[in-house]
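[Solved] Which block belongs to which protein?

Original post:
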Amino acid sequence: MTPSTRGHRRVAVLFAGAAAASGLLLSGCGAGQLAETATKATAINGVNLESPDGAVSVRDLSVPYPGVEGYPAGGSAPVEVGLFNNTDDPVMVRVSAAPVTDEDWATVVGAQSVVIGGSEQTGPTPSPEPGTVEVPQPDPGRDAIVQLPANGWALFTTDDTEPLRVTGLADPLAAGYSVNLAFEFSTGGAPLVVAAPVDMPLTPAPRAPAEHDEAEH
């Protein structure tokens, strides 16, 4: 998906220190904490929703289809979404992982965090020094705090050099499942909690070869 040429496309901005982030966002809603009045949105492929005051539109929220094997437990998954500022003033949006409650569907998966950028390294790599091996350290990325300019937007896709990612999946995440996210807005109001769904494949998954019927001659 190619970002639109109209308006501004801004990457996420990391603010130094948790105090700065919490100050810009909702008072009383610190990192990893959600107000009891948080709004729950229904999970449908390509979720669309609005901030409580209508200042920000969240469009086409989903997790790309990962193939039949899905995203593994403990791993990460990319998140695709468009964030649109409907006001004449800059707005901050924070995206975080929301806890899964007993009221959630059985197909909703929890996660540890939501980040921008970063990577997951797997396995050791040869070191420049003969006979030694370096174990690469994973890049955790940075907090998913996005600055939207006045009447501007930010788009996150899997083609981005610094994609939006949900990390530390509590369970495998596959087609038919969703991951719980929370959106907080500097304009105020309760956070929006939404189950971001995994995209369904455009074509059915290939079937395994049928076994021969032993009774068939």
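(Second protein starts here: sequence line, then its structure tokens.)
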Amino acid sequence: MPLTFDDLLARARALPRGGRRAILGVAGSPGAGKSTLAARLVRELNGTGEPWAAHVPMDGFHLADAELDRLGRRDRKGAPDTFDAAGYAALLLRLREEGDGDIVYAPGFERVLEQPIAGAVPVPPSARLVVTEGNYLLLETGAWARVRSHLDEVWFCGLDEAERVRRLTARHERYGKSPADAAAWALGPDQRNADLVAATRHRADLVVPPVWGDALRGGHSSS
């Protein structure tokens, strides 16, 4: 039978065991729907009660534009070496170790400004599941190699390539790029990153097909 969104909810809900906090990673190429899936999972799992799940995006670990300018990397913003990968891995370890302690604050990312924002994402002690999403969760090079060991499972968002590029281009336009610049970025730096991410797909515990798209965009879910 095809995988449903309710199947994903049940699998995510079962990850925390023995009273400890679990961390679920959602990987995929730019524009594949990682953030949408993570946000919907957390919203459905939390319902209206005390937060049981928290959403911590990897994008909060983008290096600031000023640092990218200093390093000469701004023209390929979004590549693996334009993130603080070691800082991200350290946060995941802290989230696992402090599951019963104080609130842990993670950085967020403001898409209008295209800049990371410190202390923007609170993870309360009540959160038994942290859902983190980003491109490079399955990468095996540099500090990124530390990330996988801190994740209980990693799901990979699969999406038709033409549709992924269409969505990504539309997103760039929505946040201020001209149609020409949006297409150039999606087919240039973004595509190079997408090819790198696609090569890590085999390391995922689950490949999430796009068949649950209607439920994800607001359709019916029984949970």
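Accepted answer:
You had them paired correctly. Confirming on the second one: DSSP finds eight helices and seven strands in the chain.
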